[in-house]
């Protein structure tokens, strides 16, 4: 584990160095409203409100004093005009595509975007911050938004919404929203297995128990702010990420990381079952661990030819600012990963399709 810690800290230090140098900043992408099949309207879903990390951050980190940003090429390569909006992938995020599938809008904007329109408040906002986690310490390590701050911004959002449409309409909008919570990866890769703080305090299982308690408190806060419908996204097989395999010196998925993710997912599901009963909320669990495993084991069924390396650079270690100036693969849709941690838009579409089915089955009906 010491070798993992050293190599990854070198990578993270390189990220910081790049962050201090001048780099091209892409123009922010604008939201495109999309009629779709109007399922959201027919099922009385007002909007999507998103909390989490880089898996669902459309660019909030662009406006923070942190090195964990993706507002430069080659990120966003496959968005219209190659817009690098701050999304850590080549295109859209799962929440973007789920919103489109529900007939709400094509892209979920960042709450901190200074160009945010009042109309966007009615259809969906993301408060997510790349490199964040259930553990507040995880966010502190990289100066990003912990969930507590994301929830503070939810309260600010509600104030702006009331000013725009009135108290009654604002309350109905939040009540009929689908909340999404997606994080946990950074708690392990960036915090527990790299920084020595939490690993000195907790065993892996103790840390997982701590994280699920934090998650439960976050969900209770959402409920207190008016949330009635929620999708919680589990962790992927962390040991199969190209970065983890590289720094571990392994050609195979790293078992200890996967075991931690699997146990965390099990504990999440147990905690959600209790919360459904105590809070009387509609809560769905999205099992992305199984999706990644199926795609990795049967890549041809999903159109993938590469599942062990990312599309950017060597595909083995590039992440964030270390992707700056790197070449990319010819066809990202053949790759599961875009950089050494984050999936391609193609993999995110697979996740989005499953989330949409989950929402239709457990949240809307």
Automatic annotation (TrEMBL):
It comes from the Eukaryota. Keywords: Signal. Coiled coil: none annotated. SUPFAM superfamilies: SGNH hydrolase (SSF52266). GO terms for molecular function: hydrolase activity, acting on ester bonds. Residues 1-19 form the signal peptide. CDD domains: SGNH_plant_lipase_like (cd01837). The keyword Transcription does not apply. Belongs to the 'GDSL' lipolytic enzyme family. This is SGNH hydrolase-type esterase domain-containing protein. It comes from Aquilegia coerulea (Rocky mountain columbine).
